[in-house]
Amino acid sequence: FYKKRREDFFPSFYLLKQAKEMDIKIIINSDSHHFTELISGYEEAFLAAKNAGYTEQMCLTKNGWNATKLF
Fold it and tell me: What is the pTM of this model?
């Protein structure tokens, strides 16, 4: 998906849905190589996660891993 080199996310929607069914937690992040592209594709990624049935993602804080609501 990054820089239009892909038409879909990794993992694919199919795998994302399978992961949800197996109760696998997710983290939505970026593989950007420049700070101006850091949040590129985030809206689409959150929408894909929601469509797969996710309502939260994991976030690393100073207190360890915590579940946070998807926007």
Answer: 0.79
Q: In whole angstroms, what is the distance from residue 51 CA to residue 70 CA?
A: 11
pLDDT tens digit string along 5-21?
A: 667 777 888 999 999 99
3-class DSSP state for residue 3? helix
Instruction: Using CB atoms within 10 Å of the CB of residue 1, give its burial: 0 to 12 exposed, 13 to 18 middle, 19+ buried.
Output: middle
Instruction: Compute CA 71 distance to the chain's CA centroid, rounded to the nearest angstrom.
Output: 12
- 40 by Cβ neighbours in 10 Å (0-12 / 13-18 / 19+) ranks as middle
